[in-house]
Amino acid sequence: MRRRGMIETRRMTSADLPRIAEIQAHCPEAAHWKPEDYLHHQSWVAESGPALAGFLVLRETAPGEAEILNIAVDPACRRQGVAAALLRGASLDRFEQVFLEVRESNAAARALYTAFGFSGSGIRPNYYVCPSEAGIVMKLQKWYGLGDEGPTGPLDV
Ligand SMILES: CC(C)(COP(=O)(O)OP(=O)(O)OC[C@H]1O[C@@H](n2cnc3c(N)ncnc32)[C@H](O)[C@@H]1OP(=O)(O)O)[C@@H](O)C(=O)NCCC(=O)NCCS
Questions:
Q1: DSSP bridge pairs for 135
Q2: Is residue 24 part of a domain?
Q3: Is the omega angle on the peptide bond into residue 125 within 30 degrees of 0, that is, cis?
Q4: From the CA of 79, how far away is ligand 1's center (Å)?
Q5: What is the Cα–Cα distance from 70 to 12, expressed in whole angstroms?
Q6: Within a domain: residue 114?
Q7: I want to staple 143 with a disulfide (CB 3.0 to 4.6 A). Which of 12, 109, 129, 150 is the partner?
């Protein structure tokens, strides 16, 4: 288990699924999967106090490469560092590259990913449906410069 202030992250278990479904229902911008399917991937939850505040799902797509499939934080727990704790808890620096897609209009998620060192690497017109919208492909590239913090420096939230 990783601790970050009052936020703790750990791997998702089947006992978490009812709460995952609840959070997902409150996050229309997130991907909506059957919660049990998340257990087939690398999935983390964040606990803030007694409650489960958010989750992140990652798929290893190739050696050294991964894709973030979903991340969602209960609206009542936002802007408290929950998503940042999840991204850190998932130890993305294990991978050479991490990819994700995000709706063009999802300013909060795009700001989160940018703050974490992701940058835009492509656009997929009409990638999303209902409503139809472009998907921005974002990539986090492992950084081998001086230090190991990437071109944008560490995110301290
Ligand atoms: C995107 C989301 C996961 C962010 O979760 P969060 O726990 O509120 O994010 P954090 O508190 O960890 O924010 C970390 C940093 O990301 C950026 N950020 C997050 N939300 C932001 C917002 N609404 N506006 C601007 N910047 C934002 C900021 O840089 C923030 O640091 P700061 O609070 O010190 O300024 C959350 O808004 C969410 O669940 N949205 C709905 C689901 C979704 O869109 N998922 C992504 C699908 S691709």
A1: 103, 124
A2: yes
A3: no
A4: 6
A5: 13
A6: yes
A7: 150
